[in-house]
Amino acid sequence: MTSLPASALSEGTVTLCAVFILLVPLAGAGVALINTGLGRSRSAAHSMMASVCVLAVAALAYFVCGFAWQGFAGGPAHAFSAGGRSWNWIAASPFFLRRLGLAGIPVPLIAGLQIFTVGLAALIPLGAGADRWRLGAICASTALFAGFTYPLFAHWVWGGGWLALLGLNCGLGHGFVDAGGSSTIHAVGGLTALAIAWILGPRRAKYSATGLPAAIPGHHGVFVLCGCLLALVGWLGLNCAGGILFAGVALPATALIIINTVLSGAAAGLTAALVTRTRFGKPDASLTANGYIGGLVASSAACAFVQPAEAVIIGIVAGALVPLSVEWFEFALRVDDPGGAVSVHAVGGIWGVLALGLFARFPDPAPGQFIAQLVGVATLLGFVLPLTYGLNWLLDRISPQRVALEGERQGMDLHELGAEAYPEFVVHTEEYLPR
User: Fold this and answer.
1) The dihedral of CA 275, 280, 285, 286: what is its sign?
2) 385 in any annotated domain
3) Within a domain: 111
4) 55 part of a folded domain
5) For residue 432, with 0-12 CB atoms within 10 Å meaning exposed, 13-18 middle and 19 or more buried, which class applies?
6) Which of 292, 323, 411 has the alpha carbon at shortest distance from 44?
7) Can you say whether the dihedral through the CA atoms of 230, 234, 235, 236 is positive or negative?
8) How confident is the model at residue 103, as a pLDDT?
9) Which of 130, 145, 142, 139 is nearest to 47 (CA)?
10) β partners of residue 402
11) Which alpha helices (H) appear in 332-347, and where do they start and end?
12) pLDDT, tens digit, 9 for 90 and up, residues 203-215
């Protein structure tokens, strides 16, 4: 699947696509609120400050070199030959978004959308590193992410790279397809969150001497639930704009995208509430919110190619996977992920990619689509995860990413910003945590 040529986009389509793109920052605002609400009160201002810095650093890094390496379908790129076929692996566009307007109408729209989506993807690791990730290290990690990791995989999927060419070169369906970013945005961001959680290690007093995790509740459930509502609006813009620019869907098809996105999120949220009520006796607000976002994440890949009933199934599976995955990462793998970023975005994104292979209905069906999606998932786990872990590990060797122990005790707000988010309130101490 490739983006539409310039001549295929009418003036009305360009205008409405621009409106969809302007909704995407609301998804970032929702994720930032969720990350903040699920963290501790003494790090709330730091979390929001880090979100603003991440969005700024990601936009500038993508402007400098990110878009040059991601490129666009049909644009200049580096390729190698193997088996008598050409395999496109990285774009060769000019740095600093030079000559952007010379390639046709869709290209500036793609660049505008990606400046927002790379920031959204870079916000995801903040949830996993909450309460212990230094602001300077966050900015450095974001520069690597937005300048290289994200653009490389995005080129393979959306820029005419080798994953998108699996259909042409190997006869695998339409190649790897992801209309709204379940893989490029969410799985890449979620796997980076996993790498960050591994490198930083768990928060102080998270695990007892016997290895059992202590419950460290988020400080603001209202932030978390309001974040869901903001994210929904942003996701509608994200999936519609992605469907037009990266999957070549016609403007009337955006109505189906909106319906599928809403239904998938709704089914996932209710399923997560039911799962947590079954397991804990009462529905859990934070896990329900994460399940809802997981449904939106899973909807993105196939939003333009499934029927509403199938979107509901995708949401139900995502809503069950997220709370179970949160528990599995915390108990079995000892991954301290306060915001549930790995489960929501990595697990939800991978499920969304596979769901496209299971349910997608293309105008011109071709066999092998599920295999193409599996190749994409294998690339995420076998290449992107080691790459993002290696880059952040090297960064940690140069300058430790985790805050000093005293800073964690004091709280990130006071230690790094010099002021608390709630100076007139009494905040929770660690007295209830095991020693």
Assistant:
1) negative
2) yes
3) yes
4) yes
5) exposed
6) 411
7) positive
8) 55
9) 130
10) 133
11) 341
12) 998 998 888 999 8
Average pLDDT over residues 152-181: 96
**Domain count for the chain:** 1
Whether residue 103 lies inside any domain: the answer is yes
Quote the domain boundaries for residue 321: 6-417
With 80 as the cut, is the pLDDT of residue 257 above it?
yes
Taking residues 75-91, report their average pLDDT: 90
pLDDT band, very low/low/confident/very high, at 337 (cuts 50, 70, 90)? very high
| Beta bridge partners of residue 86, listed in sequence order | 81
Which SS3 state, helix, strand or coil, does residue 81 take?
strand
Q: Which residue(s) pair with 78 in the sheet?
A: 90
What CATH number should be reported for the domain holding residue 91? 1.10.3430.10
Q: 150 to each of 66, 87, 396, how far by Cα in Å?
A: 8, 19, 19
Give the whole-angstrom CA distance, residue 291 versus residue 329: 15
CB 131 within 8 A of CB 408: yes
pLDDT, one tens digit per residue, over 93-145 is: 999 999 876 556 689 999 999 999 999 999 999 999 999 999 999 999 999 99
